[in-house]
Specification:
Blueprint: E1 2-11, E2 14-24, E3 28-33, H1 40-47, E4 55-60, H2 71-74, E5 75-78, H3 90-100, H4 105-114, H5 130-142, E6 148-152, H6 160-175, E7 179-183, H7 187-193, E8 196-201, E9 204-210, H8 211-218, E10 222-226, H9 230-237, E11 243-246, E12 252-255, H10 259-268, E13 275-279, H11 283-291
Parallel strand pairs: 3-7, 3-8, 5-6, 6-7
Antiparallel strand pairs: 1-2, 1-4, 8-9, 10-12, 10-13, 11-12
Helix pairs in contact: 3-4, 4-5, 8-11
Bound molecules: adenosine-5'-triphosphate.
Length: 309
């Protein structure tokens, strides 16, 4: 479990984290989202004692991080995958960290296997690809078999197999009852991995809800219907708050009624439907809607460069 209470971090005049409160619960994957510069890394750094809050507090498993006598066994962290010593082999790197925390070589071998690093465990970390470095960072985070895991951009640089591996690992860790906090800018990946989301913008919390609620709260869901009797169906379902539009392919899109209500109305009127689907918005749409106006760094033109020809 991770908690933050009235947590503030100021760098000079810059308020990076602006009095936030949240609880990250065990048994779930919680996604931590926000535009560049929103304050995610600063928050994660404060949780694990790498940055001191200007005011407020954070706790991991019921105590401030620094008060844990064996922090590696409480919380596993991946904040900077490039932090490993380049001259050592992956095995030696993990063994050195394990030794300073009273963790045996057997656990080192175990996490090497878990992270899919068996074939490169004897190789110098300096020669690792970004993806291998990420795997090593995740192996390090898991070394102490911690109840809480915090990973900042863990899929950065991973190939599709690696991305899927991280997703499955996170889901399994949560299913074991652990607390998993995960940041990523990959919305489709987050949508498949997280149960709950905390979204921040300019240091403030914009949403802290189950993922389905974040999506339904920030996007419009519609019912898409296809029938040979579009005109009659439109007349049948017309009413206050019901908006219908005819799409280019002849299907009609209805907002203001659930798919069930449309199906019942059609059935009562004896109208045969060839297709009916409830279309909810995507996490990406919800995220863009939620963070509009909260983006610190935005390109001035969506079309990119090429203005001077
Ligand atoms: N050491 C520092 N000194 C001064 N300002 C800082 C420092 N660290 C972070 N900031 C500022 O605090 C704000 C939050 O930064 P932070 O790195 O926490 O954002 P983030 O959400 O992790 O962004 P990203 O998605 O780009 O990693 C930014 O405006 C950043 O420039």
């Amino acid at each position: 479990m991770i908690t933050a209470q009235a947590l503030v971090k100021q760098y000079g005049n810059k308020v990076a984290v602006d009095s936030i409160d949240f609880t990250v619960r065990p048994g779930q994957v919680t996604g931590f989202l926000g535009p560049n510069g929103a304050g995610k890394s600063t928050t994660m750094r404060m949780i694990v004692g790498l940055d001191k809050p200007t005011s407020g507090r954070t706790e991991v498993n019921g105590r401030p991080y620094r008060e844990h006598r064996a922090p590696l066994r409480e919380v596993g962290v991946l904040l900077d995958a490039k932090a490993a010593n380049g001259g050592r082999s992956a095995y030696k790197h993990l063994l050195a960290i394990a030794a300073t925390h009273g963790i045996g070589a057997a656990r080192v071998k175990e996490v090497i296997g878990l992270a899919g690093l068996d074939s490169v465990a004897g190789k110098r970390v300096g020669g690792f690809s970004l993806g291998m470095g990420q795997r090593l960072g995740i192996a390090t985070a898991l070394l102490g078999d911690p109840a809480t895991i915090i990973l900042d951009e863990p899929v950065n640089g991973l190939d599709p197999e690696g991305v899927r591996w991280v997703r499955t690992l996170m889901r399994n860790l949560a299913a074991e009852g652990r607390t998993v906090l995960l940041s990523s800018h990959l919305m489709s990946e987050m949508a498949q991995t997280a149960d709950r989301l905390i979204v921040i913008g300019r240091g403030r919390i914009l949403a802290d809800d189950p993922i389905a609620d974040v999506i339904s709260g920030a996007t419009r869901s519609v019912t898409r219907v296809r029938t040979h009797e579009s005109e009659r169906l439109m007349a049948t379902i017309a009413g206050p708050g019901v908006v219908v539009s005819v799409l280019a392919d002849g299907a009609i899109e209805v907002s203001g009624l659930t798919a069930e209500q449309v199906a019942v109305a059609a059935s009562t009127a004896g109208i045969v439907l060839h297709e009916i689907a409830s279309m909810s918005g995507s996490l990406e749409e919800a995220y863009i809607a939620l963070t509009a106006g909260e983006v610190e760094y935005r390109s001035s033109s969506a079309a990119g460069t090429g203005a001077h020809k």
